[in-house]
Amino acid sequence: MVPSRSYVSTLRAERAATTRRRILEAAATCFTENGYSGTSLADIAARAGVSPETVKNNGPKRELLLGAFEQAFAGTEGPAPVVDSDPAQEILAITDADAFLTATAAFVAAANARTSVLWIEFLAAANADALVAAALDDLLARRRADCLGVEAAVAALSFLSSPESHQQLVLEGGWDACDMGAN
After folding, report:
1. CA distances from 38 to 27, 34, 57, 131, 183 (A)
2. Which of 44, 63, 93, 178 is the Cys-Cys partner for 59 at CB 3.0 to 4.6 Å?
3. Helix, strand or coil, per DSSP, at residue 93
């Protein structure tokens, strides 16, 4: 008996990754506009322009919430530390302290502007779903680890520029996003 050869298609993998990104973008929009409990997989499918079956194949709703948040915040989903991302590495390479802090504040402020409302939905979903709560705990542990991996000033800046701070200062307090370092 001849062993079967495995089939590998780079094009298929690229299309699947593109579809996954579209689904996560659609999920982020739906969760932000309708809330976690008010969003169905069919809503996400309609927004992404794919079938509900395609959305189901990309994970349960709770995994889409986590992936959507990770992608919106860091540009990619998954457990990789944010400090390992290309934008973070570019910032860490800055040697001038003022430029470093300005770039860090701009990066975090822009990420939080993209995710602060989604973060609210993540917290609400965690209150109602133990598996979402576990994903949130994991995400927070990764955030703490990211902060421990860089200088104390960056850790403090990360804390001050959290999604909760963005919500309080920009969404509720009326600060201009430019006041937070975003342009």
Report:
1. 12, 5, 20, 18, 32
2. 63
3. coil
**Number of Cβ atoms within 10 Å of the Cβ of 27:** 32
Decide which of 1.10.10.60, 3.20.20.100, 3.20.20.220, 1.10.357.10 is the CATH code for 10-180: 1.10.357.10
Can you say whether residue 181 is alpha, beta or left, with left for phi > 0 and alpha for psi between -120 and 50 degrees?
A: left
Range of weakest confidence among 78-82, 103-107, 154-158? 154-158
In the structure encoding, which two tokens stand for residue 155, read together? 């850790």
CA distances from 72 to 2, 24, 54, 65, 128 (A): 46, 9, 21, 11, 22
| Per-residue pLDDT tens digits for 31-64 | 999 999 999 999 999 999 999 999 999 989 999 9
Element (H, E) at 27: helix 10-34
Written as one letter, the residue type at 105 is A
State the DSSP H helix or E strand holding residue 107, giving kind and residue range, or none if neither. helix 97-128
- The rounded percent of the chain whose pLDDT value lies above 90 is 45
In this prediction, residue 177 has a pLDDT band, given cuts at 50, 70 and 90, of low
